[in-house]
UniProtKB/TrEMBL annotation:
The gene is RASA3. GO terms for molecular function: calcium channel regulator activity; GTPase activator activity; zinc ion binding. InterPro entries: C2_dom, C2_domain_sf, PH-like_dom_sf, PH_domain, Ras_GTPase, RASA3_PH, RasGAP_CS, RasGAP_dom. Keywords: Acetylation, GTPase activation, Metal-binding, Phosphoprotein, Repeat, Zinc, Zinc-finger. This is RAS p21 protein activator 3. One of its GO terms (biological process) is platelet activation. PROSITE patterns: C2, PH_DOMAIN, RAS_GTPASE_ACTIV_1, RAS_GTPASE_ACTIV_2, ZF_BTK. Gene3D superfamilies: C2 domain (2.60.40.150), GTPase Activation - p120gap, domain 1 (1.10.506.10), Pleckstrin-homology domain (PH domain)/Phosphotyrosine-binding domain (PTB) (2.30.29.30). Residues 299-493 form the Ras-GAP domain. Residues 545-647 form the PH domain. Residues 1-80, 91-232 form the C2 domain.
Length: 804
């Protein structure tokens, strides 16, 4: 049996790690990870690790999906065979070379050839065992010779600048007769030669230097051109066509959703955006553009995410959700099944709660979740799973106390519930009560099915997915949270027979503690408060809200007059009041920066300290805190949230220094005075509202992409409207999947959608043609070996040929 976990990597940079599933050869993780990708990448990789009893990790295997292949698996459950992991295949980065093949005429009139190879620089090399000290070897190799030369080692950088030139004699005059060399080669011999560039990490370990990647270029391609300069992607080492033994390492099931959009300026989206934003006012709502998107998408979640973000951005989310919820309630026959399906309404409300309710969760649940994770009280109540020395009654009491405390903080938190959520709950309550007037409880169950079942219970079960904990809870804590979540979910459901909700007899026994009317009354009072119009007292007392925390590395700020400015690992905490760091979690802060003193937050160029993923927090009197995050995704997250909380500061800077002040001058502009104003404009401002940092144009572009993807379904829906208008008999089976209440109105909306999508499609095609004309293969943006660009060239060629 194994204790396995999985990591998600951009190339070789880890950006996410699952929990450890213990003692299983078929682990199920069931975890979602979402991130904005802040840099280019070649592979999305997944590594499976096994942790032994000494907490040492060994790699079992990996799945690596090339960027250009991601669309093949978009939003589909797919089993991938695990592949072997070896150092020769773990490659990332690119190299910039200049090659010049020159003809030299000797005194005797004989022509010989010399090759000059200039290694300029590399970018994006991997970090190996926490360091990268790269160097390059350049080898001219042929069937009967091999000559190698080496660059200097560049310390502590994965973007080294070499700028070194190496000369090789490709052919020599016949009078050259040195041993171990050869006379004039014929043309066939030269055609078989190649120049090979290998990148290595200079290691102090006894195992030798680590291979980082290679590049092989045949000389024959230079015979048509005397000089050639280009960027190349590094490739895995050629293993001589020896295939690894196809051991069965197992397989990994993944569902990958990858989107890459080009967003135009706002005016391009006006026609489509206007049709979408009018959705709440269309009668019936099933004829609206937003509802149609939900009908044609394969998964309702696909439609809900961009729709909710767009409507939140323009302040139209409450009327839109009210309209689609009211329509769904009218179609519901049984009050016990209200909002229980994965409808567009349910998915939109889920997404709204995730966006608007994150801080509400932080205030309500985080303190007690932190305590549960730290204290590790035994709470197992299944007699079969009890550990030696544990007492069942003591465990039940521990669990009961935790459930009681969480239940109390939830039911007393009504005044903190975000306004937008309360307005939606009010609408749900009114629609349900009007539809099922004989059922007095439906006004409560309509709201509790969201706030308890889809909001609080999942947050307790998986606190890391709701930013309540930075990492996955350990197995014991995870089990405790599972038991609490089940109980809270049942308490909030207000069902008549609560014990019947549990499959396990031990849970039914435990729930007897809570079979008192006071719990049902507390739930109803809470639901009344969060779903009543005008229930809020706007004079709320602001309290610190924890926004983000975690370990990072910081450089000393020089607050002490004497002492080295070294780098140390610290625990950072950001609230809406201050940014602090301390030695370890829970310690007294070593430094506190009030939010009003954050004047700018910007990336720091790697040349400053030869370290990746660094950013700077600029404070008054030009004091700067330099911080290194654990990976590129985490760096972006910290920069974004620090920028958002400090966005409204009156003294925010407009310019900054992208590099550090070292050795008496700024590395970026070479100014010598440390108080010299910045030389680079600060990055664009972000909205001050932390919860709803949304780009409306980007969301409209995402909706356009979905409409374009499902264009055949839109056309089929048009046919269905026509069929319904002229034929009043039984509905054809192929049209029965669509909800069409008013064929005429639906057809009009579909026509506007298709016209808007067609116009945007033409703009995208023109943008790609213009980009294709300007892009050079072998440039820094599209190195040779960029398969995604090669695919794009092939597509453009096919389009051009088809047009001709």
């Amino acid at each position: 049996m194994r204790d396995c976990y999985c990591t998600v990597n951009l190339d070789q940079e880890e950006v996410f790690r699952t929990k450890i599933v213990e003692k299983s050869l078929c682990p199920f993780y069931g975890e979602d990870f979402y991130c904005e990708i802040p840099r280019t990448f070649r592979h999305l990789s997944f590594y499976i690790f096994d942790r032994d009893v000494f907490r040492r990790d060994s790699i079992i295997g990996k799945v690596a999906i090339q960027k250009e292949d991601l669309q093949k698996y978009h939003n589909r459950d797919t089993w991938f065979q695990l592949q072997h992991v070896d150092a020769d295949s773990e490659v990332q980065g690119k190299v910039h070379l200049e090659l010049r093949l020159s003809e030299v005429i000797t005194d005797t009139g004989v022509v010989c050839h010399k090759l000059a190879t200039r290694v300029l620089e590399c970018q994006g090399l991997p970090i190996v065992n926490g360091q990268c000290d790269p160097y390059a070897t350049v080898t001219l190799a042929g069937p009967s010779r091999s000559e190698a030369k080496k660059t200097k080692v560049k310390k502590k950088t994965n973007n080294p600048h070499f700028d070194e030139v190496f000369y090789f004699e490709v052919t020599r005059p016949s009078s050259y007769n040195k041993k171990s060399h050869f006379d004039i080669e014929d043309v066939d011999e030269v055609d078989k030669m190649e120049i090979r560039v290998d990148l290595w990490n200079a290691s102090n370990l006894k195992f030798g230097d680590e291979f980082l990647g290679e590049l092989r270029l045949p000389l024959k391609f230079l015979r048509q051109s005397s000089s050639y300069e280009a960027w190349y992607f590094l490739q895995p080492r050629d293993n001589g066509n020896k295939s690894l033994k196809p051991d069965d390492l197992g397989s990994l099931r993944l569902n990958v959703v990858y989107t890459e959009d080009h967003v135009f300026s706002s005016d391009y989206y006006s026609p489509l955006r206007d049709v979408l934003l009018k959705s709440a006012d269309v009668e019936p709502v099933s004829a609206s553009a937003a509802h149609i998107l939900g009908e044609v998408c394969r998964e309702k979640q696909e439609a809900a995410i961009p729709l909710v973000r767009l409507f939140l951005h323009y302040g139209r989310i409450v009327p839109f959700i009210s309209a689609i919820a009211n329509a769904e309630v009218k179609r519901t026959q049984d009050p016990n099944t209200i909002f229980r399906g994965n409808s567009l309404t349910s998915k939109c409300i889920d997404e709204t709660m995730k966006l608007a309710g994150m801080h509400y969760l932080q205030v309500t649940l985080k303190p007690i979740i932190d305590e549960i994770c730290q204290v590790h009280k035994p709470c197992e109540i299944d007699p079969v799973k009890l550990k030696d020395g544990e007492n069942l009654e003591n465990n039940r009491e521990n669990l009961r106390q935790y459930v009681d405390r969480i239940f109390t903080v939830i039911t007393k938190s009504g005044v903190s519930c975000p306004t937008v959520m309360c307005d939606i709950f009010f609408s749900l309550r009114e629609s349900a009560a009007k539809r099922f007037q004989g059922d007095l409880d439906v006004r409560y169950t309509a709201v509790s099915s969201f706030i308890f079942l889809r909001f609080f219970a999942p947050a307790i079960l998986s606190p890391n997915l709701f930013q309540l904990t930075p990492h996955h809870p350990d197995p014991q804590t995870s089990r405790t949270l599972t038991l609490i979540s089940k109980t809270i979910q049942t308490l909030g459901s207000l069902s008549k027979s609560k014990s019947a909700n549990f499959k396990e007899s031990y849970m039914a026994t435990f729930y007897d503690y809570f079979n008192e009317q006071k719990y049902a009354d507390a739930v109803k009072n809470f639901l009344d408060l969060i779903s009543s119009s005008g229930r809020r007292d706007h004079k709320s007392i602001e309290q610190p809200i924890l926004l983000k925390e975690g370990f990072m590395i910081k450089r000393a700020q020089g607050r002490k007059r004497f002492g080295m400015k070294n780098f140390k690992k610290r625990w950072f905490r950001l609230t809406n009041h201050e940014f602090t760091y301390q030695k370890s979690k829970g310690d007294h802060p070593l430094c506190s920066i009030p939010i009003e003193n954050i004047l700018a937050v910007e990336r720091l160029e790697e040349e400053s300290f030869k370290m990746k993923n660094m950013f700077q927090v600029i404070q008054p009197e030009r004091r700067v805190l330099y911080i290194q995050a654990n990976n590129c995704v985490e760096a972006k997250d910290w920069i974004d949230i620090l920028t958002k909380v400090s966005q409204c500061n009156k003294k925010r800077l407009t310019v900054y220094h992208p590099s550090a002040y070292l050795n008496g001058h700024w590395l970026c502009c070479k100014a010598t005075a440390d108080n010299t104003p910045g030389c680079t404009p600060c990055t664009g401002g972000l909205p001050a509202n932390i919860q709803l940092d949304i780009d409306g144009d980007r969301e409209t572009e995402r909706i356009y992409s979905l409409f374009n993807l499902y264009m055949p379904k839109l056309e089929k829906m048009q046919e269905a409207c026509g069929s319904k208008s002229v034929y009043d008999g039984p509905e054809e089976e192929e049209y029965s999947t669509f909800i069409i209440d008013d064929p005429k109105e639906t057809y009009k909306t579909l026509k506007l959608i298709i016209e808007g999508v067609g116009t945007l499609e033409q703009e995208h095609a023109q943008y790609k043609r213009d980009k294709f004309k300007k892009t050079k293969y072998g440039s820094q943006e599209h190195p040779i070996g960029d398969k995604s660009f090669q695919t794009y060239i092939r597509q453009q060629s096919e389009i051009s040929a088809h047009s001709i």
